[in-house]
Write a structure and sequence with these properties.
By secondary structure, the chain is of the alpha+beta class. The protein has 2 domains: 221 residues, Metalloenzyme, LuxS/M16 peptidase-like (Cytochrome Bc1 Complex, Chain A, domain 1); 212 residues, Metalloenzyme, LuxS/M16 peptidase-like (Cytochrome Bc1 Complex, Chain A, domain 1), CATH 3.30.830. Helix content is 46%, strand content 16%. It contains 21 helices and 12 strands. A hairpin with a 5-residue loop joins strand 1 and strand 2. Helix 4 runs parallel beside helix 9, helix 10 crosses helix 15 and helix 13 packs antiparallel against helix 19.
């Protein structure tokens, strides 16, 4: 579901008005977008910079380098030439909170400072992003830090399971979904490659400066002009211009995992979903539809518990649509009890029975969603979804570092602030149409994760795996560069 965060006083204003309202916003002449969320409740200010990029902007030869660049940004710039000087500046400002992160669709950096240090905080980040210094010696040291991080990812069973499914689901451009990259790419990275990322992505037309807290918009705009007005750069990069393809037909995986829980198996089913800038209306419909499915005592989960082949608990049935600029998908997850295959049946057969039960349920919903859910439930779902998003977080720092960063990067802020109005337009007919186009007869990808000894205890496992077209995965073949 959507994740929205609102500063306390800003939230009160929105609720009183009964609608979303965009915060003060200005675009500088060089293309830098500046957003201000005013909240005088606490004398702090969060200064955040967001960049479109991350995994979604990668090619095979640059996979993992946005993550490496993020690390290098903390190693020094023309004003603060060393990591020690960088950290000394942070301490001098009395920074309460700071961090940076690389995701599949954006990179961001932020600090929270006392409000009277707002100018210093904005100047601090201006040096970091405008004038970084990439030293070859520091790069070699930072490579090892990043490699150690990704080695942790690559041995994490949860990460292995997710990457195995996602890299095959999005087989056209799997590197756009994985921020880690292979170790060799990090090990062979050069200063020239980092400079290319800086020139292509760390530019004003690909950047948002987001400020939240006890600040005034007029002051922020003046400081942004002072410290970022001279920043130059080219046109905004085009990210994910060629879309990911459909889910390949017949994609089915099984992961016998030594470390998995005893007594249960996880089943994941994924369908190709809408991309937020390509099929925009469908993303609003998806959120409303999935909210209707989310109740643990609603008809959808109750029916699945009856028809599903030994589902564990309705509380652990999930259906999500993570909004994406490129490669959106629907993600269903559930758990099967696994105790005695002689009585319960083979786990892969049961996973396929669950897939069929879902298709049958989708067909019922599409035929008459008002009858399936109850005619009054659509408007209730919209209201609850909107209220949940409005109230999910209440502080300015989270609003700018999470919600505004995400929506500016992945879609647009117009999309975000038009969310309530567009959700309210969703009809039963829209939901039927959505199911027909994305979930009815469209191919789905399946993955079953089960404890290795439980899988080996079923004498039919290997035969059913072959008959049903499942492929075994593990740490040696999960990632896109291993295939």
């Amino acid at each position: 579901m959507r994740k929205a965060a609102i500063a306390t006083l800003f939230l009160a204003t929105l609720l009183a008005a009964g609608a979303w309202a965009a915060p003060p916003h200005k675009t500088l002449s060089n293309g830098l977008e500046v957003f201000v969320v005013e909240n005088p409740a606490v004398p702090l200010a969060t200064v955040c910079l967001a960049f479109r990029g991350g995994a979604s902007a990668q090619e095979p030869e640059t996979a993992g380098l946005f993550h490496l660049y993020e690390h290098m940004l903390f190693d020094g710039n023309e004003k603060y030439p060393t990591q020690a000087a960088f950290m000394a500046a942070i301490n001098k400002m009395g920074v309460a909170n700071w961090n940076g992160g690389t995701g599949t669709q954006y990179i961001n950096y932020y600090i929270t400072v006392p409000s009277e240090k707002l100018g210093e905080g904005i100047e601090f980040w201006s040096w970091a992003v405008k004038k970084p210094v990439f030293d070859a010696g520091k790069l070699e040291r930072e490579k090892q830090v990043v490699i150690n991080e990704i080695r942790g990812y690559h041995t994490d069973p949860n990460h292995i399971a997710d990457e195995a499914l996602e890299s095959r689901e999005f087989s056209t451009y799997p590197w756009r979904k994985n921020i880690d990259g292979p170790e060799d790419t990090i090990q062979n990275a050069t200063v020239a490659q980092l400079e290319a990322i800086r020139a292509g992505y760390y530019i004003p037309r690909n950047t948002a400066l987001l400020i939240g807290g006890a600040v005034k918009a007029s002051e922020v705009f003046a400081l942004a002009e002072k410290y970022f007005g001279d920043w130059k750069g080219g046109a905004a990069p085009v990210i994910g211009a060629t879309p990911q393809g459909p889910v390949p037909a017949g994609l089915a995986l099984v992961y016998p995992d030594d470390q998995y829980y005893q007594g249960i198996a996880q089943v994941q089913l994924h369908w190709r979903g809408p991309d937020v800038l390509r099929q925009t209306k469908d993303t609003y419909t998806s959120d409303v539809f999935l909210f209707l499915l989310s109740s643990p005592v609603g008809r959808f989960k109750s029916d699945l518990m009856k028809s599903g082949p030994g589902l564990y608990d309705p509380e652990y049935i999930s259906f999500n649509y993570p909004t994406a600029r490129d490669g959106g998908d629907y993600q269903f997850g559930a758990y099967l009890t696994v105790e005695d295959p002689a009585k319960e049946g083979n786990v892969l057969d049961r996973a396929e029975a669950l897939r069929q039960a879902l298709k049958d349920e989708f067909a019922l919903i599409a035929k008459d969603p008002a009858a399936y859910f109850g005619a009054d439930q659509l408007e209730k779902a919209k209201a609850k979804l909107i209220d949940q998003n409005l109230l999910s977080e209440e502080v300015a720092s989270s609003f700018v570092t999470d919600s505004l960063t995400f929506w500016w990067s992945v879609a647009t802020t117009d999309y975000f602030f038009g969310y309530e109005a567009n959700c309210r337009k969703v009809s039963w007919a829209d939901i039927s149409d959505l199911i027909g186009r994305y979930l009815g007869s469209a191919p789905s990808a399946a993955e079953v994760r089960i404890r290795s000894d439980a899988y080996a205890a079923d004498p039919k496992a290997v035969d059913r795996e072959k008959a049903l077209g499942y492929a075994e995965i593990g740490p040696d073949n999960a990632f896109w560069w291993q295939k």
